[in-house]
Amino acid sequence: MEDQTLRIRVLFVDDEERILRALRALFRDADVYTTANPREAPKLAKEHDVDVVVCDQRMPEVLGVDVLREIRQVAPRAIRILLTGYADLKAVLSSVNEGEVYRFVNKPWDNSELRELVHQSGQIAQRDVLTLLHARCHRILGQRHGRHRERRDDAGDSEPGDGGRVVDREQHHLAQSESP
Question: Which of 19, 82, 151, 162 could form a cystine bridge with 104, CB 3.0-4.6 A?
Fold first, then answer.
């Protein structure tokens, strides 16, 4: 059976190009977007509807938690992961507790652990999208079914109290003539 999962879309944000190249190579099996400019990360996250954002904490212009906070506003379904050193632990824990960050990964990271975390996060994000789409389809179909039922009621194809089901007119007259 063919694998039915979609390729995850990941945005990596780091001011060091060599880190971005390494991450791009590590995630060849995903749709990868990168930026060394943290100010453009929210725009990219929204534009590409990414599943996961992995962002460095320490960058010259801005802290990673602040970038992820902005991304949360424009791409709320994206799972946010922070790359950090031990010195940033207090800020990171605060961000995790506030819901800005899903997980944090210490530098240097273990490639297999980072891959597993990012792929699991991507699957969570995609599952959430599918759940929302499923609910939206049910709501739309329910509305259409309701309009269809109203049209049948208006056309005289159903009787009051029959739950909107179509009643054959002969069956209806037979049922009425047999009732006491």
Answer: 82
Q: Sign of the C-alpha dihedral, residues 68, 73, 74, 80?
A: positive
Residues in the chain: 180
Task: Beginning with the edge strand found earlier in the chain, give each strand of the sheet holding 9-13 in spatial order.
Answer: 31-35, 9-13, 52-56, 79-84, 103-106
Give 10-residue mean pLDDT values along the chain (180 residues). 69 97 97 97 97 95 92 95 77 72 90 97 83 65 63 52 43 44
- Angle at which helix 64-74 crosses helix 89-97, to 10 degrees, equals 20
Adjacent-strand bridge partners of 106: 84
Rounded distance between C-alpha atoms, residue 110 and residue 115, angstroms = 9
CA distance 94 to 63: 13
Count CA atoms within 13 Å of residue 58 on its CB side.
9
**Do 97 and 165 have their domain in common?**
no
- The structural domain count of the chain equals 2
